[in-house]
Amino acid sequence: MKKVSRFPEVPPSSIAWNGHGQACTVHLVVLVRIKAANIADVSNRRDAMLRPALYFITALLVFVNAPTSRANEVKRVSVNGTELAYVEVGQGEPVIFVHGGLQDYRMWLNHLPKFAERYRAIAYSRRNNYPNEVDPDGMPDGAADVHGEDLAALLQALGLSKVRVVAHSSGAHVALFFAAAHPEMVVSLVLNEPPAAGILVGISDSAEMLKAWGAGIAPAREALKAGDTKAGIPLFVNAVGGPGAYERRSDADKKMNADNVASYQADATTKRPRPVFTCDMAKAIKVPTLLSNGERSPKFFHRIMDQLEVCLPNRERIVINGSSHTVPSENPDAFDRAVLAFLAKH
């Protein structure tokens, strides 16, 4: 006897029945092939008994057929003469996550599931960062203008015309250049402490701060220039995040830092001029922007955020308690709550 008369997509051999003539399970391979279950077409008694199973099938199909259901599945796309790795999870309007220095897409893995409940969440690794091809003589981390054009090309390759951007540190610097050059591609921005030192040039009382900042990171740069990454990485992290910042990091984060040191070695040795992001460029960014600060971050970053708050015409600002520079990792729950609330409005 044919068990399913109104659902030809489901072969009877793929359904397990109990002693009362009710469907219990359906083979997973069949679920992958089904495009939709016309539950409204259930009419007779036997088909009515199938209704619970078909509702279950339909729910599973959302999961099985979702193209972005595994955040640990690394994909790759060619842009601007290089290959960039990315992961994605969830469905809906796209949100792109941009990592900071000594990091890669993995810094966002613990954040993506929360965002995937509402959005298509995409995190990628920038040029010269793991697991992409890396080279100490390659693209510097600080080449925010180049990385910004890579981001635009990545979105075009993925068929995305407008996105929300969530970015940290040097990745937020990238996001500023991207938004200034491609305003038509941006819905809103979330920027956590970009090292946009250029915006302070000419600002009263900033010269001494910039000089002190340069002196603070100089030992890390010298170590990296000499190839001493074992010393250079902790020196840099502690200069940016404050004393003990590196020691507080997890083993996984320390490994990620080591995996991505090439772009910082390139930063220490490059003769390429560092791009300068100006207040005039910021004034041209009209989209809603959330500025995020760590409560315990160095004054250098707070000063930059102060000036961005002056220059950006459509901005909000938050300070995350208990955090230094790497807010998304140091207080992820507070960061995610604030960002999700902002994105819900913008």
Describe the structure.
This protein has 346 residues and is an alpha/beta fold. Helices cover 41% and strands 16% of the residues. The protein is built from 13 helices and ten strands. It has helices spanning 28-33, 45-64, 112-116, 144-157, 170-181, 207-225, 229-241, 251-259, 262-269, 279-283, 299-311, 327-330, 332-345, and strands at 15-17, 23-26, 75-79, 82-89, 94-98, 120-124, 163-168, 186-192, 289-294, 315-320. The strands form two sheets. The protein has an eight-stranded mixed sheet with strand order 3-4-6-5-7-8-9-10, with helices on both faces. A two-stranded antiparallel ribbon has the order 1-2. Helix 6 packs antiparallel against helix 7 and helix 6 packs across helix 9. The protein is globular and about 45 Å long. Keywords: Hydrolase. Residues 94-332 form the AB hydrolase-1 domain. This is Alpha/beta hydrolase.
